[in-house]
Amino acid sequence: MSTHIIESKLVNNNLFFVIPSWGNLLGYPTLGKYANHNVSKISQDLVIFFGGTECAILTEKGILYYLFGLGYYYVKFELQSGRYITDNRQLTGLILSDFVYDHLATSKNITLENDRDVIVSENLFKLPMDLSYKTDNKKTFIQGTLMRNLFIPYKDIFLELMETLHNPKSFQIEKSKHILLSTHWDFYNQILISNEMDYESKTNYLQATAGLNNISLGADKILNDHFSSLELQAITQMTQQLKDVFSSIEYDPMYLFSIIDNATPYLKIGIPIPPQEREISGKMPKESILISAESYMNSFKDWPDLFKRQSKVQLEQSFTPDETVRYEPKETTGLKKPKIGEFIKKEDKFELRTMKRSFIDFKPLPTIPIDNILDILITVKKIVEEDYDIQSIGTAFGIARDNIKKKVLHLNYLWDMSKYSNMFQRTEKNLGLSEKEKKELLEEIDYWIKLSEKNEYKISKEI
Predict the structure, then answer these.
(1) Could you please report the per-residue DSSP string of 79-107?
(2) How many CB atoms are located within 10 Å of the residue 280 CB?
(3) Is 51 helix (H, G, I), strand (E, B) or coil?
(4) CB 20 within 8 A of CB 150
(5) Who wins on pLDDT, 261 or 295?
(6) Pairing state between β 84-97 and 180-184
(7) What confidence score (pLDDT) does residue 38 get?
């Protein structure tokens, strides 16, 4: 691909950027695949970005708009089995071709029509991270609008993203390099990853997921075409700084706008002058999304016929069930249905029995301690041993995690507790853990207890 770079000046711009439906923005190009099975239905496909640097590049094919930072592609979907599945991909960059950007920039604002740098539309939520220049009334209105239209409807997704950000193994830019969600003409509706990503991560990441045409190599080529080594170094440093900020800030799970409030003090340096404070004459034909795009405010690119748009209903109606292939969840992998007259082996019978979840009546949780980490973990272990329903166990993990975080901010197993809390609370009601799940979970809690005992011994010895 040959490109002619006219401008590649990076612009620092700390912004919060959310596309509520990636498929709706692109006109539902595909349902995609997952685990070698065709997806039959997509119910959610959210893209979230904490942006730090942006850029507009003029190429032979048109303008490309880049946004770099910490991103998250989340999708909830069905295969023909009818089971809901969720998947996600971490991102460090977003590439918008000019026709996609212009479609975003001309989406009608749902509210805040007179605020140039805050957008609440069908296809986009966007605001600067720093709102200190807003009046108190305006800021309160913005907070309420985003809580009602974004943070409350997508609460679970934001909580999942924040837990991911707090995981030290996530968004390792030096190790994984850049991961780009692209609408580039040659890489349309794809995620591009780096050849330099380590083998294990690369193998896992390249597995197809719902809503995307492809996940492929190619990030290095396109970035090297458009940016100098110094610019790429600056982008990497910025991404790492964002990771450091968002992995350490506290936030209120019941008031998720606190993510923005609490991150702002660490992101104010280098934020450019807000768009509405510049001299503007007349009504602008497009919303101001990126600062680097303002010199193109009077241009508009039509959606090309090559990337034909359709409705969600049209796309899902095009799905043709395959009667010979059905997706089976991982918990039944390796168990074959016996032919008529064939007996199941004893070990298979045992495996089936130990993996079966039984019906359990709801019972109220005991009070979980708040003063001692060991007491908290022992109480959680007792809840698992006494066969509470899975949703209640998930609630207990969440309470225990929050109580431990009041005592110690950083423990290796807090992320695991959050993972179990989120996963268990999404299960069906009145189901108990299988024998296998219970055994493995108790072993893990015992490991956490041993770690806590060692930490307490170490602290007492130092005292």
Answers:
(1) ETT--EEEEEEEEEEEEEEHHHHHHHHTS
(2) 13
(3) strand
(4) yes
(5) 261
(6) parallel
(7) 87
Predicted pLDDT at 322: 65
Query: Which residue in 256, 261, 294, 257 sits closest to 275, CA to CA?
Result: 294
pLDDT at 319: 80
b/e map 36-73, b = 16+ CB within 10 Å: ebbbbbbebbbbbbbbbbbbbbbbeebbbbbbbbbbbb
Q: How far is CA 345 from CA 43, 331, 336, 342, 355, in A?
A: 40, 18, 11, 9, 16
Q: How far apart are the C-alpha atoms of 56 and 460, rounded to whole Å?
A: 57
Rg (CA), the chain: 24
Give dist(CA 422, CA 156) in Å, integer: 8
Residue type, 91: L
Count other Cβ atoms within 10 Å, centred on residue 435: 15
pLDDT of residue 457 exceeding 70, the answer is no
Please tell me the distance from the alpha carbon of residue 212 to that of residue 189, in angstroms, as a whole number: 6
Nearest to 55 by CA among 21, 6, 16, 103: 6
CA distances from residue 37 to 31, 89, 209, 329 in whole angstroms, order as listed: 11, 18, 10, 12
Kindly state the DSSP code that residue 366 receives in the 8-state scheme: P
Pull the structure tokens for residue 455.
């930490």
Write the DSSP assignment of 208-239 as a string of letters. --BT-SEEEE-HHHHHHHH--HHHHHHHHHHH
Cα 24 to Cα 29, 45, 215: the distances in Å are 9, 9, 19
How far apart are alpha carbons 199 and 201 in whole angstroms? 6
Q: Give residue-wise pLDDT tens across range 333-384.
A: 333 333 333 333 433 333 444 456 777 777 888 888 887 888 899 899 999 9
Q: What is the pTM of this model?
A: 0.69
User: Residue 409 — pLDDT band, cuts 50, 70, 90?
Assistant: low
Contact 263, 249 (CB under 8 A): yes
Report the SS3 class of residue 288.
coil
- Give the whole-angstrom CA distance, residue 449 versus residue 417: 13
Backbone φ and ψ of 264, nearest 5°: -55, -45
Residue 164 to residue 243: CA distance in whole angstroms: 11
pLDDT value, residue 56: 92
| Count of residues making up the chain | 463
Dig out the tokens for 178 from the structure.
């850049």
- Smallest CA-to-CA distance from 222 within 247, 189, 187, 190 is with 187
Q: Are 264 and 143 in contact (CB under 8 A)?
A: no
Amino acid at residue number 192: L
Find residue 65's DSSP bridge partners: 56, 96
Which amino acid makes up residue 422? Answer: N
The two three-digit tokens of residue 154, written as one number: 């997508």
- Give, for 397, the enclosing helix (H) or strand (E): helix 390-407
